[in-house]
Specification:
- The complex is a heterodimer of chains A (117) and B (230).
- Chain A is mainly α and 117 residues long.
- Helix content of chain A is 60%, strand content 0%.
- Chain A is extended and about 55 Å long.
- Chain B has a single domain, classed as Arp2/3 complex 21 kDa subunit ARPC3 (Orthogonal Bundle).
- Chain B has helices at residues 10-34, 40-53, 71-78, 80-98, 106-129, 135-162, 164-167, 182-215, and strands at 58-59, 65-66.
- In chain B, helix 6 (135-162) runs antiparallel to helix 8 (182-215).
- The longest helix of chain B is centred in the C-terminal third of the chain and has 34 residues, at 182-215.
- The chains are: A mainly alpha (117), B mainly alpha (230).
- The interface between A and B is large, with 72 and 77 residues.
Chain lengths: 117, 230
């Protein structure tokens, strides 16, 4: 790529950003596909209740640690009890926007701090 | 592959946190040395890409779900050390804000997906590309890098899960943390990543690498054999 002014966003970077936004809008696929194919949790990421269903008890340590921390937007949702699939898709996209923007910003800042000499 | 709180005991998550912190410290030094300032925006976007791609949960019909991580493509484009920074940020934000992956398991998750995985991907890419500039070879090498690195990351995650029953049980023989041992964890994690999630990581890696190979070849870390200092 021809080197241009460093701070100006070049064409490639703009294209990547647009691609990322399109991906975020498509993230609800990550909710629909598992529903359509009747797939549950990821292996080893079950809740304490699910583990109890699987093996008949909740391991002591798992019980103790499993609620050490409550994330503000747990499960990429602002209201996990809302049964509406449409709403959950909206929460998911919003979570994607917030999470991706935060990740982009923090990484940018961090690498700026690391790389500047 | 995001280990939640309570699945690993402190005998496992503390050493893994140590290993991650050590790797991150080296990554800071390496990134300072080998990443050009003009690549800072790409690093940010790469981290965001990893965050987003992990939201695409794919189903094993009637079974579990999983997803690609994006660490392989970042390792090829920006180098494995830059990937350590980018994917760790994504994983830490997932844990802190979205509860995806435990707080106690941040070190383990970052070690598996942000340290181990990008290095495996980087070396597999080099191995299969064999310095070829043929688009087909680059595409194939990128696919293999994604496929094998996600599988390997899944396997060390399975080992971390599976050693829990060996390390700690209660007096009456019940599990304290992850209840499944290696004989269950390894096949479960291996099969789902062999048949589906690894393929997804491979395809994502291959297509994104192909795009950059066609548009911005001089800026691909793994093709410049280690960045501007080599």
């Amino acid at each position: 790529m021809p080197s241009r002014k460093e701070d100006d966003m070049n064409k490639l970077q703009k294209r990547i950003l647009i691609f990322l936004v399109v991906l975020i809008v498509l993230t609800p696929i990550g909710i629909f596909l598992p529903m359509a194919f009747d797939a549950g949790d990821a292996w080893g990421e079950w809740s304490a209740e699910t583990v109890e269903g699987l093996i008949g008890y909740v391991p002591e340590g798992l019980q103790k640690y499993s609620d050490t921390y409550q994330a503000p937007m747990a499960d990429y949702s602002m209201n996990a009890d809302d049964p509406s699939l449409g709403h959950q898709s909206g929460y998911y996209i919003l979570s994607g926007l917030i999470g991706a923007a935060l990740t982009l910003g923090v990484t940018w800042l961090l690498s700026k701090l690391i790389i500047r000499k | 592959m995001h280990i939640p709180d309570g699945y690993l005991g402190p005998e496992t998550y503390i050493p893994l946190m140590g290993a991650f912190v050590a790797a991150a410290a080296v990554a800071v030094v390496k990134v300072k040395k080998e990443v050009a300032a003009k690549n800072i925006p790409y690093l940010g976007m790469a981290a965001a890409f990893s965050f987003i791609i992990m939201m695409f949960n794919l189903p094993i019909p009637g079974g579990t779900t999983g997803h690609a991580v994006g660490a392989a493509v970042i390792a090829i484009l920006l180098g494995p050390w830059a990937t350590v920074i980018a994917v760790s940020v994504a994983l830490i934000i997932q844990a802190l804000i979205f509860g995806d992956g435990g707080i106690t398991a941040i070190g383990a998750n970052c070690f598996n997906m942000a340290v181990f995985m990008p290095f495996v991907a980087y070396w597999i890419f080099k191995l299969f590309r064999m310095k070829s500039e043929k688009p087909g070879r680059v595409f194939f090498a990128a696919f293999m890098a994604g496929y094998i690195s996600l599988l390997m990351a899944a396997l060390i995650t399975a080992v971390e899960f599976g050693i829990q029953p060996l390390i700690a049980t209660t007096a009456d023989g019940k599990a304290l943390y992850c209840p499944y041992d290696l004989s269950i964890a390894i096949p479960a994690m291996a099969i789902e990543h062999l048949v589906l999630f690894g393929v997804a990581e491979g395809l994502v890696t291959a297509f994104v690498v192909r795009y950059f190979f066609n548009h911005d070849r001089e800026n691909i870390y793994a093709i410049q054999k280690g960045g501007r200092h080599e």
